[in-house]
Automatic annotation (TrEMBL):
The keyword Oxidoreductase applies. SUPFAM superfamilies: GroES-like, NAD(P)-binding Rossmann-fold domains. Pfam families: ADH_N, ADH_zinc_N_2. This is Zinc-dependent alcohol dehydrogenase family protein. Residues 11-328 form the Enoyl reductase (ER) domain. The keyword ATP-binding does not apply.
Length: 330
């Protein structure tokens, strides 16, 4: 048995329950891990609330796709991962099939990466999802090149901070957006070339000013909703508006016709495009490891909660005041 977070109905953080649940043994292609720390992601709040990109198949349901821990056992057909190894789990599976909000969890071996020496469990639960997401969006999908202006919305999130550093490592020019001035300094310290405060500035106008009227090669947007009309104006001809989140919770129009049918590419993107493709994941892992080795990348941890306070951790995430990742220790 292991203490495991489950929920028996859709709802807010208060539906989360810590319950003793049988763990079982790892099957083919699976590993059993002792969880030390859990990375909290907005996808889990959406799954809990019934607004995620996939619904809960059956209640009670479980949560979590990012963690750090130690391998306890491996199932058949698993190579390269052995008991006693310190590892991280990256989001590469449905939470209907596997979940890591627990003291012990079974996960696919394909979702396990070795934890670099010197990276503790909290860092190991905080670093992979943001940087794999950012690398995949900018390098694999966006084709970002040196000198390209890249606009990053909701830039104080874990992914946003990772995207700033990833853009810099690729030689691009990261332009961060944030709602208020409160996080402006943190974004500049993270490496943003410019910060646009959306509560008092015209995003498209500022981007066009900063790029001599041309616009951004890539806009990495976590907000979606009607704001894509303004963001579409900020994209250079032939550039891409890449949507990886929907924080607005509002319908998202296609802005091309309203803007006079410019040469605008607009598409959605999820981390699964990287983590479920072995070749892409291999490249992404190597990229992130190189940044960790030389100090260009680091985990950005805003606050750490104990597992007993999982509901409070979700409430804190939904309040939106954090800069970086929220981590839960087990």
């Amino acid at each position: 048995m292991a203490r495991t977070v489950r929920f028996h109905e859709y709802g807010g953080p208060d539906v989360l329950r810590l319950e003793d649940v049988p763990v079982g043994e790892p099957g083919p292609g699976e590993v059993l891990i002792r969880v030390e720390a859990i990375g909290i992601n907005r996808a889990e709040a959406l799954f809990r609330g019934g607004t995620y990109i996939e619904p809960v198949r059956a209640f009670p349901a479980r949560l979590g796709a990012e963690a750090a821990g130690v391998v306890e056992a491996v199932g058949p057909d698993v190579a390269g991962v052995e008991p006693g190894r310190a590892i991280s789990v990256v989001p590469a599976f449905s939470m209907n099939d596997h979940a890591v909000y627990a003291e012990r969890a079974i996960v696919p071996a394909a979702a396990v990466v070795r934890r670099p020496d010197g990276l503790d469990a909290v860092g190991g639960a905080a670093v992979w999802m943001p940087y794999l997401t950012a690398y995949g969006a900018l390098a694999e999908v966006g084709g970002t090149r040196p000198g390209d202006p890249v606009v990053i919305t909701a830039a104080s999130s874990g992914v946003g901070l990772a995207a700033i550093r990833t853009a810099n490592r690729l030689g691009a020019v990261p332009i961060a957006t944030t709602r208020t001035d409160a996080k402006r300094g943190a974004l500049l310290r993270a490496g943003a070339a410019e910060v646009i405060v959306t509560g008092r500035e015209d995003v498209a106008g500022r981007v066009l000013d900063l790029t001599a009227g041309r616009g951004a090669a890539l806009v990495l947007d976590a907000v979606a909703g009607p704001g894509v009309l303004a963001l579409g104006r900020a994209v250079a001809p032939g550039g891409t508006l890449l949507l990886y989140g929907a924080l607005s919770g509002e319908p998202t129009p296609y802005p091309g016709f309203d803007l006079g049918m410019p040469a605008l590419n607009m598409r959605t993107y999820t981390l699964f495009e990287i983590t479920t493709d072995p070749a892409r994941l291999r490249r992404a892992e190597a990229f992130v490891r190189s940044g960790l080795r030389d100090g260009a990348f680091r985990p950005d941890v805003d606050r750490v909660f104990p597992l007993d306070d999982i509901a409070e951790a979700h409430r804190y995430m939904e309040a939106g005041g954090q800069v970086g990742k929220i981590v839960v220790t087990v």
